[in-house]
Structure formats: structure tokens, C-alpha cells
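[[Sequence with C-alpha cells]]
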Amino acid sequence: MQIIRDFQFIEPEDRGASVAIGNFDGVHLGHQSVIELARGAAPGAPLGVMTFEPHPREYFAPDAPPFRLMRGNARAHRLQKLGVQKLYELPFNAALAGLTPEEFAHNVICDGLGLAHVVVGADFCFGKGRSGTPQDLQRFGAELGFGVTIAPLMERSENVVSSTAIRTALSEGRPQDAATMLGHWHRIEGEVVGGEQRGRELGFPTANMSIEGLHPPKFGVYAVLVDVLDGPHQGSYRGAASVGTRPMFHGEIPNIETFLFDFSGDLYGATLSVGLVEYLRPEMTFDSLDGLITQMNADCTRARDVLATQ
């Protein structure tokens, strides 16, 4: 998949794509339906996705609590798995935010990227002040020569599939409900960083990753499916992960610490994708390290049982 980060200096071969437009946080089933419409909207055209980095919500409210379900790299990996050929990941800055809806259609979609067709969700807003509607985009497309399809909102179990609903499910410790809306396990992706090596001392060496900037799932212990995306240990594993602040050791900054079953090796610097399968228990403190170790053994036994059918 090719990633293009500029709409003003485009090679001729990068024009003419059929593109789904949106933020695609989580790449849930609703997003996937928009992408599928783009796939078939312009026969022969490359399949593309237009998205923005940083997320516009981060740009306008940089001090708001973290809300993203995935970072840009994780989103790109997921889109590549869906067969997207061109990812137009446009920098969201003052210049882009200041474009009127008509200027966005003319300068970015038509003159800049030369798109053949665009697909947007029924709740899509664009342009300065989010003042443009899907119907406005259809009107601009008719004037400027690109096709526009408006995708209906997807519903599942009488609820609209949305990033907001997925965040709620994760906050409540319901990763399986989140997965139903995502179409895949919710995954936390990132580089393994050095920790305090307490897990190693307790007999449970963990791969530690930051969750900074991400919407935190409910703190506690999870059964997880892990993909090591690079390095000598690349492959798929099962394990148990703790998300939170480690109250037993008076931690303050939330992270995720993952113990891989039946694994031996050094994962520092590797990129992991940790899929949350089932919430096992909340964070706890114990009277002794022996009590913690006993609970960790029980957690791993339960996680193995949960993952035996995955």
C-alpha cells in the first residue's frame, strides 16, 4: 500500500482513485462498508482511503482526554489488510482546517488528488466549521466531475456502529462487544519499551508498551492474542496482558504489559499488536508478592482456557 501525505504535488499515477473519506478510527464495520462501496464505485480505479493526521479532534482540542482507538501506523496496517492501494493521509493543519467546503472539494479532491469517485458516510461533515454536508459534496462533485456516493450508517443489534460505541464497550470491559462492531479484535499496537523488569523477577517477563494518546480500555487483566510484527520473533502468540497503572507497585502512568505463553526471547524494540479477547479481572493489590504470583498463575490458566478456541 502506498501512503501519500501531500495533495498539492501528486504524480500522475496517483490520480484517478476511488476513495473512501473519513477518520476511520478503529476501522470498524461501518468504515469497512464505506471502503467496500469505494472498491466498486469506479471500475478500474485504484482503491484509496483519504484520512487525516493528526485526527481533527486532536487538532482542535489537544488537551482533551485521549480518545483514539488506534494510532496512524495501526490504522495503515488495518487498511492494508483490507486491500487499500493508496492511503492519502493528509496533514490536518490550519491551512486544511480553514478551507471552505467548496475549496476542499475543488482544491483537494478535484485539482489536488484528481479523484474519480469519493464515498462518505451519511454523517460526514467537512470544510471550515464542519459546515459541509454529504449533499453539498454531491453537488460539488456534479460541478467538478467526480462521483459521490453516500453510505448509510451501519446498525448492529439495534445500535449504530460507531467509534463512540466501541469506546464505551472497551471502557466497560466488553472487548467482545467491541469486536462485534469492529469486525476484528480491538488491538493496541506499539513498540516494546524497557520497563522495571518486575515481571521477570516474578517469573512472568512482560513486553511493555505505552498507551499514551489512546483511549484506555477498562483497567485490568485480559486474555490476548498477540502478533509480533517484526524482528526475529515475528509471529502469532497467545498470552495475558495487564492494562493500567500497576497499583501493587504504585504506578502512575497507564501502560500495557503482555506475557506471552510458551515464549522465550528478547522483544525490546519490536512492534507488537495486542488483541484484547476477554476481560478477566480488574486491577488489584495483594498483601504479598506470593499472593500476586498465585493470582497471575490463575490469570494465565484462565486466559489459556479462553484462548483455546481462538
About this structure: The chain has two domains: 2-153, 173-307. The CA atoms of residues 59 and 93 lie 8 Å apart. The chain has a mean pLDDT of 93.
